[in-house]
Write a structure and sequence with these properties.
With 243 residues, the chain is mainly alpha-helical. It has one domain (2-239). The chain is 79% helix and 0% strand. The protein has helices spanning 2-13, 16-39, 46-53, 59-77, 80-86, 90-126, 134-162, 165-186, 195-203, 216-239.
Length: 243
């Protein structure tokens, strides 16, 4: 299994899409952090500082897309045939792709989190802002990185299930920006378990002040369970499809 994951990582990092999305994630977070610090020089409370640091979680949206493009792209370009010739067991093949995208997303998340810390913390400290405790800062930064990794895994599982890049990306966007808010508004106590609620729990964002978010570790476990269910469905469906 380790060799399969290494092979998937090689495929992932050898594509322009990975580097383009990684660069986009870093550039987006960099701009948001710097512009926020320049425009709003009155950031001084711990809540405001935590909200600024949680911007690193935006990288997770791009690693979601990365996972989809990486997994569904195998079908678009026909490389899935050679992959399954080497690894006929569909569950192993899907699992390797999911794990590789998780590691790739985690790497992007760690770089973006480190960049956020290097830029924001000295700037805030120089302005006399009230910084949270070290544990809180690490929780937000590492939580955002973990979210980026888990997002990449979920995207890969969904891409392997749907096989169509456009359909999977559009489906994810509709789910996050349409279905999640609608469910949260119509069904009591479901908001913390939606993808939006779980991502907010992990990256330490403000979210909806009326929602009691789950603990970061529990949110990560539930997200991983969602990924495992979608990945299992992808392996089951793939085993019954003609490639």
């Amino acid at each position: 299994m380790i060799r399969l994951v290494i092979a998937e990582l090689l495929k992932l990092r050898s594509t322009r899409t990975f580097w383009a999305l990684a660069g986009s994630a870093a550039a987006l977070v960099f701009l948001l952090v710097v512009l926020t610090l320049i425009i709003d020089d009155s950031l001084d409370s711990r809540d405001e500082v935590e909200s600024l640091l949680s911007v690193n979680g935006l990288a997770g949206l791009l690693t979601l897309v990365l996972g989809v493009v990486a997994a569904a792209g195998e079908y678009r370009h026909g490389t899935i045939a050679s992959t399954l010739l080497v690894t006929p067991q569909r569950l192993r093949a899907v699992s390797a792709a999911v794990l590789a995208c998780a590691l790739g997303g985690l790497a992007i998340g760690l770089v973006v989190s480190a960049m956020t810390a290097v830029i924001a913390l000295p700037w805030l400290n120089a302005n006399g802002a009230s910084l949270p405790s070290l544990g809180t800062i690490l929780g937000i930064l590492l939580g955002g990185a973990a979210y980026a990794g888990l997002a990449g895994a979920l995207g890969a599982a969904l891409g392997a299930l749907l096989r169509n890049q456009v359909a999977a990306v559009v489906g994810l966007l509709v789910l996050i920006f349409v279905v999640d808010p609608t469910l949260s508004a119509l069904v009591d106590d479901v908001a913390p378990y939606t993808l939006s609620g779980l991502s907010t729990s992990m990256n330490g964002g403000d979210g909806d002040s009326d929602v009691d978010l789950l603990p970061r570790a529990l949110a990560a476990v539930i997200w991983a369970l969602y990924t495992a269910l979608i990945g299992a469905a992808a392996a089951f469906v793939t085993a019954r499809r003609d490639i």
